[in-house]
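Troubleshooting entry. The earlier prediction with manganese (II) ion gave an output that would not parse, so I re-checked the input for stray whitespace and re-submitted. Clean input:
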Amino acid sequence: MRPSAFCNAGPEHGDAHVSQSRARSALSSASCAPRTPGLAVLSSRAGRLARPQEARMSGCAMRNRHCRGAPLTAELFPETRRCHRIAAGAVLLGGWAQSQALALTAGVDAVIASAPWRHMQTPGGRAMSTANSNCGPLGWQSDALGYRYLRTDPESGRAWPAMPAVFWSLAVAAAEEAGYPGFAPDACLLNRYAPGARLSLHRDQDERDAAAPIVSVSLGLPATFLFGGARREDPCHRLPLYHGDVVVWGGPTRFHYHGVLPVPDGHHPLVGRFRINLTFRKVR
Ligand SMILES: O=C(O)CCC(=O)C(=O)O
Ligand SMILES: [Mn+2]
């Protein structure tokens, strides 16, 4: 772990792995009250494209001022959004993926050509509001048998498509930037949100490797990300996420609850009427 890691999200770990099974159950607004009502994040969409290298440099310069502070407490200005510590081990890399968005969306198209979007069933038999696909050696699956990772796409019987090189390099670089060097994801779950789609409060805990972080990339329409605590009833940060934002969480927050509020309607010039999320994980 780099001692001087931008945002220093990684080193101060120690919390035990919470081993309750993953549940994307109904979002309860009562159990997820905003810690900071009225929290507003000013969009950094006003023209500054944060290339990874550029973001890295400004992050180093600002890490003590902005990335070691208290949880989100106030308005975040575009500069501070670029690397913001959400909680111990969890950071927002604002705009980190923006300069590669075109290549990322081309990668999404390539994956979807082999493993088309589908609405998986929850173990309880309800269709998820997000459409999903996977790439990489392992793909996350939800159906009547539960949540698990599979080597093959059950719809085609073929291996999941390979992870596009741009996915891999972005995820590895973002993890390192957040204080998790050596991240080697073996799964990328693609989530597609049409307006109104959401992801209920849940924890990512079907992965065997508890040491690796989660790297989560947002493309297209904005959405509100909820980031809570180790217990479902813990209060949540409400974090607006925009095209090109990357959230990384691990260490003490690796198994924290999180979710996405219903995505508001809109149109994004590159992605259209959707939000797409790429979630990178190290499973084995
Ligand atoms: O869409 C997001 O931002 C989060 C996705 C997520 O948490 C998941 O796929 O498990
Ligand atoms: Mn998740």
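This one parsed fine. The chain has one domain: 31-281.
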